[in-house]
Write a structure and sequence with these properties.
Elements: E1 8-9, H1 15-22, H2 30-38, E2 46-49, E3 67-71, E4 81-85, H3 86-90, H4 100-115, H5 123-129, H6 141-148, E5 152-159, H7 160-168, E6 183-190, E7 203-206, H8 213-218, H9 226-229, E8 234-239, E9 251-255, E10 260-266, H10 275-287, E11 301-308, H11 312-320, E12 324-335
Parallel strand pairs: 10-11
Antiparallel strand pairs: 1-2, 2-3, 3-4, 5-12, 6-11, 6-12, 7-8, 8-9, 9-10
Organism: Aureobasidium subglaciale (strain EXF-2481) (Aureobasidium pullulans var. subglaciale)
Protein name: FR47-like domain-containing protein
Length: about 325
């Protein structure tokens, strides 16, 4: 049976249907799966699909290539598109056969995303997404250029097989710094309950206070907006003794919109104590409830992290947590016109 390349817009009552559809494709689709579970949708959120998985006859479509995307262009310059496709899952079975329909579906999806209007640029959002360096000039100016160009959209955590299709079709914007830099997708599959760890003397857990967002953003090269950070589950670690104030955190981490372990950081003077692992376990143990209850559809608590291939220390943290490297993903600025 030949697959149609038509892309449908589905949303109003499709959330649970999509979760049930995607469950057999975990963990490959974990980013899209968790993004839908988290909610926090905006009036501009859209769900695009090549299959009508909400239809009573949708099971007959499982044997055909398909692609699904969640799109919210108000997130610029952060990730605007999360997607999943049937061919990504078959890679786990060492099946790398590329069908012509796959190219057609990617092409159709990009075309439909391009039809969605980009919300007017907010000066407040723009200001909170960039930083100034020591001499006061703007850093991350390629993200500023992204904000100014509504003809491109940032696709996040794109599976390597889909990234290759986007590249071969000429959709990737080569001016995006790091577009060809892979990230390792680590999967954490907690079959049983997650136990957090106690901290060394003088260290205490807390939350990331909004007053500390500037500190958080100053420690990462990835653009973060205050409006996003305030939505995300977070854990911070504070240190106090008779000499040191605990007004600012010395370590922090968030769970992303897609439940990924993100913006994990420990200040250099406090490294070597296992704080990153402790903080991560605290996040997983206490904050995954934001994405719904333990999920019987996938057999436990499944979450993930995306780690740059040259970030050895973060890779070690993930491995110490029992994470397994499944595949590679990319952040890609895609031309949608």
């Amino acid at each position: 049976m030949t697959s149609s390349n038509e892309i449908f817009e589905l949303w109003s009552d499709s959330q649970q249907d999509l979760i049930q559809w995607l469950a057999p494709y975990m963990p490959t689709c974990v980013a899209l799966y968790r993004r839908i579970q988290f909610g926090h949708f905006t009036p501009d959120s859209r769900l695009l699909s090549s299959i009508n998985f909400a239809s009573p006859v949708h099971q007959t479509e499982a044997n055909r290539p398909w692609i699904i995307a969640f799109v919210d262009r108000t997130c610029r310059p952060e990730t605007e598109v999360w997607l999943s496709a049937s061919w990504e899952h078959k890679v786990l079975a060492n099946d790398s056969t590329r069908l012509p329909q796959e190219d057609d579906l990617v092409r159709s999806m990009v075309r439909e995303i391009g039809k969605l209007k980009t919300p007017a640029r907010s000066e407040n959002a723009a200001a909170s997404s960039v930083r100034t360096n020591g001499n006061g000039s703007i850093s991350n100016n390629h993200f500023e250029r992204h904000l100014d160009n509504e003809n491109v959209a940032l696709f996040g955590a794109v599976h390597s097989s889909t990234a290759e299709i986007l590249k071969s079709l000429g959709f990737i914007d080569p001016s995006f710094i790091g577009h060809d830099a892979p990230y390792r997708k680590y999967i954490f599959d907690f079959k049983n309950s997650i136990s957090s760890r106690s901290l060394p003397p003088g260290y205490v857990y807390g939350k990331v206070d909004p007053k500390d967002y500037e500190l958080v953003k100053s420690r990462t090269q990835i653009p973060r907006q205050d409006r996003t950070l305030c939505q995300l589950p977070s854990v911070a670690i504070y240190y106090t003794d008779s000499q040191v104030s605990a007004d600012e955190p010395i370590a922090w981490g968030f769970l992303g919109l897609d439940a990924s372990l993100t913006t994990l950081h420990v200040e250099p003077s406090h490294r070597g104590l296992g704080l990153a692992k402790s903080l991560s376990l605290k996040l997983f143990a206490g904050e995954m409830k934001a994405y719904g209850p333990d999920d019987p559809l996938v057999g436990g608590i499944v979450t993930h992290a995306d780690v740059a291939t040259d970030n050895v220390s973060s890779q070690r943290v993930c491995e110490s947590l029992g994470g397994k490297w499944y595949f590679e993903v990319f952040w890609i600025r895609v031309s949608v016109v």
